[in-house]
């Protein structure tokens, strides 16, 4: 470049900088003018007098948002009832759950084969005096005695009383409390790692400085270590108002280990205790994930664990006070990005690439994860049908017109239809006369002995397979799968209608994973209340299986935000279920002995037996005008048949049902689908 060119470039940049400086000066002048005008408005007597009105308007807007998130007035009524039951249940989970003196004596006297030493790590920094004492007391009062409390204190001189309190407790703890004042505060991550350097236990427990432990938590954990060979443990928890654990705000009753749930949000959180060997010589907390260092740690250690055990008891009390994460995530806004970073690193470790992690409407640290779809595998949509041309037409039309995924075929499995309307519809979608083609196939089948003919449209997109036997949902779908040319099969009821255009992609991104069996969608009734959001074992009057969040409004966030992220469940409904064809066949398809009901749950449990996860995603949405086509099972012969199939299901899966649904906490009632807690009789 010539010198003149350099000079011209320099002058151009100089002019740009001058122009930018002039713009900044202009904006600053306008900002000063706006601030002056705002000051005049705020100092105006009318503005001050109108403050109650403005506050009322803001309150009304907030209530409107809350009502919308609850699903309208009906949702608010449901929420009020739920909260009333929750308040009643809270009475049994605070100090009332602490062991009586007799039980405490039994726990203290228990000698386990493995009396493991648990080192509890508590990073300290400028803690309040009363919080510090209550935290220390909750450890001293543990009924299991082989513990070590490691305290690394980064407090400043103004909080020197922290050290005085710790040394006082250490003097009467028989050497079980180890205290160290740090030269420099290293934050949560640095201070916790300093605690780890002092620890000598076989197991490590993580405890926050302002929280409280249930007196029996270590006893229950050591019991699980001995009985189940657990190497990672966690329990249920609650937030409480500062000062009294019986003043609970939110109780969190968690599922057993669920990897998809954990990727979407740190549901494990407190109280994590794990075998020291899981660290594999690596640091406990990594400073680059400060604010979400526990989520990062849990993802790493559960990857290494051989036996993760959830103790389904509320045994951790998370104090809510100004500045705590329990009180407000905005107190630590960097935690959101740190959590995304931790999940991203975890996903890359498991071989996933080109994924997206987004905050959801439930909470900023509850994530929607979009996995990359590899290739464009063909999906065979199987639809069982008898008559009901209008329902079938609506279903098929919504697939053809709304779906953004285009490598699919539709196989309608016809079962003894008799109306003229359905024959006309079949002729229309095939592009030729259905009845004539069927009769021709009938003559050919006499020679080939093929009793279940299949007719294909000219472009091959839609086929009609004919099942001539009595109605049997399992056998009908199995026939459809027989003729499926796709790598994946999608069972779909004829009374459904597509809502989200990328519904197939949302299902496929999970079904493609090596660890996933069946994937189910979120289904609504015509009034936009929920028909399906995952299946819970043992739920309902028959104690077979039922749908969670049943009849809640579409806008409802669900229990702890569960309607806003993909999660692991025991089963999903066959009304919309995607699975690899190879996996469908590997478990024998749907069991024909379940002719009408529970065949989908049985199928999912067979997949679960193979160690596969079943996933529910709320991001594939359809209407399901349930029972519009075949009616209800609540009267006469249908009710009797349902009772017979329920009995068969309970017998076949007796041990599984007795163990309880791992994704539905045993503290929840099986009489309601809204995650209501069991309330003990007073």
TrEMBL record:
Keyword Transmembrane recorded: no
Domain of life: Bacteria
Sorted UniProt keywords: Coiled coil, Glycosyltransferase, Transferase
Sections of the chain in a coiled coil: 10-44
Keyword match Chaperone: no
Domain Glycosyltransferase 2-like: 119-237
Record-level Gene Ontology MF annotations: hyaluronan synthase activity
EC number: 2.4.1.212
PANTHER family for this protein: RHAMNOSYLTRANSFERASE WBBL (PTHR43179)
Name assigned to this protein: Hyaluronan synthase
């Amino acid at each position: 470049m010539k010198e003149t060119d350099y000079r011209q470039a320099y002058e151009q940049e100089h002019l740009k900088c001058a122009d930018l400086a002039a713009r900044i000066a202009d904006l600053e002048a306008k900002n000063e003018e706006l601030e002056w005008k705002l000051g005049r408005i705020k100092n105006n007597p009318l503005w001050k007098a109108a403050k109650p009105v403005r506050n009322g308007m803001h309150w009304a807007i907030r209530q409107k948002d809350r009502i919308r998130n609850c699903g309208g007035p009906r949702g608010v009524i449901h929420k009020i009832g739920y909260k009333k039951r929750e308040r009643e249940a809270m009475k049994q989970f605070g100090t009332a759950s602490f062991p009586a003196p007799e039980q405490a004596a039994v726990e203290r006297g228990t000698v386990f084969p493995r009396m493991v030493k648990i080192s509890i790590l508590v990073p300290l920094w400028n803690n309040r005096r009363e919080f510090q004492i209550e935290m220390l007391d909750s450890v001293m009062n543990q009924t299991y005695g082989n513990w070590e409390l490691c305290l690394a204190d980064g407090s400043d001189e103004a909080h020197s009383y922290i050290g005085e309190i710790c040394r006082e407790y250490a003097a009467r703890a028989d050497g079980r409390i180890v205290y160290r004042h740090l030269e420099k505060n290293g934050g949560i991550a640095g201070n916790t790692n300093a605690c780890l350097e002092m620890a000598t236990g076989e197991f490590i427990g993580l405890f926050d400085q302002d929280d409280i432990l249930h007196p029996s938590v270590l006893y229950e954990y050591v019991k699980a270590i001995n009985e189940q060979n657990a190497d990672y443990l966690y329990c249920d928890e609650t937030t409480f108002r500062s000062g009294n654990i019986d003043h609970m705000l939110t109780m969190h009753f968690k599922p057993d280990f669920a990897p998809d749930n954990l990727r979407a949000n740190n549901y494990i959180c407190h109280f994590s205790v794990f075998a020291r060997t899981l660290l594999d010589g690596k640091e406990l907390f990594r400073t680059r994930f400060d604010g979400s260092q526990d989520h990062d740690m849990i993802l790493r250690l559960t990857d290494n664990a051989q036996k993760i055990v959830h103790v389904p008891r509320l045994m951790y009390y998370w104090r809510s006070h100004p500045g705590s994460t329990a009180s407000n995530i905005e107190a630590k806004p960097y935690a959101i990005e740190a959590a995304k970073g931790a999940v991203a690193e975890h996903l890359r470790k498991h071989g996933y690439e080109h994924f997206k992690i987004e905050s959801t409407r439930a909470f900023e640290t509850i994530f929607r994860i979009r996995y990359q779809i590899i290739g464009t595998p063909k999906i065979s949509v199987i639809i069982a049908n008898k008559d009901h041309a209008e329902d079938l037409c609506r279903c098929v039309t919504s697939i053809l017109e709304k779906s953004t995924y285009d490598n699919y075929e539709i196989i309608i499995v016809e079962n003894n239809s008799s109306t003229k309307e359905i024959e006309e519809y079949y002729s229309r979608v095939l592009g030729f006369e259905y009845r004539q083609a069927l009769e021709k196939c009938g003559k050919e089948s006499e020679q080939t002995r093929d009793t279940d003919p299949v007719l294909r449209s000219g472009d091959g997109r839609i086929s009609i397979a004919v099942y001539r036997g009595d109605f049997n949902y399992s056998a009908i779908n199995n026939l459809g799968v027989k003729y499926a040319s796709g790598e994946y099969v999608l069972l779909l009821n004829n009374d459904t209608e597509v809502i989200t255009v990328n519904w197939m992609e949302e299902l496929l991104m999970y079904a493609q994973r090596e660890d996933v069996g069946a994937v189910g969608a979120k289904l609504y009734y015509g009034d936009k209340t929920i028909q399906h959001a995952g299946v819970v074992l043992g739920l309902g009057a028959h104690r077979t299986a039922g749908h969670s969040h049943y009849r809640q409004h579409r806008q409802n966030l669900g229990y702890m935000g569960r309607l806003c992220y993909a999660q692991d469940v025991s089963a999903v409904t066959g009304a919309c279920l995607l699975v690899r064809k190879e996996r469908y066949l590997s478990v024998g398809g749907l069991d024909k002995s379940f002719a009408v009901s529970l065949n989908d749950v049985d199928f999912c449990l067979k997949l679960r037996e193979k160690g596969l996860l079943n996933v529910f995603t709320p991001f594939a949405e359809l209407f399901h005008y349930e029972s519009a086509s075949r009616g209800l099972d609540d009267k006469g012969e249908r009710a009797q048949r349902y009772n017979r199939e329920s009995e068969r299901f309970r017998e076949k899966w007796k041990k599984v049902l007795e163990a309880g649904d791992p994704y539905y906490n045993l503290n929840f009632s099986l009489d309601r689908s809204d995650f209501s807690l069991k309330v003990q009789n007073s």
